[in-house]
Amino acid sequence: MNDRDKTPADAGQKGQGGYWSARFKGLLQVGAGNMFASSIIAGFFLGFLLDSWLETAPIFMLILGAFGFVAGMRNAKKTLLATGRDESDKKDSERP
User: By C-alpha distance, which of 59, 31, 35, 36 is closest to 46?
Assistant: First the structure.
């Protein structure tokens, strides 16, 4: 994209970012870790409740803990990919 092809809105986006943008991305990355951990804990807790209600061995705790692990990985990946999208878009648009 040449300089003459840029609209005024595109030119104004180049200056966006800086301190607050970096802090916000950092908070989203911390949130991804918290989301991952809370998914695993919720899976184990729900499995524990189900096992105690049905009086079974820790089968449901392990199964729901594994589901929590998978869901946590999926959600963390989705969040981390969303934080880096604007950086990759800028790099692609700045290529000649």
Answer: 59
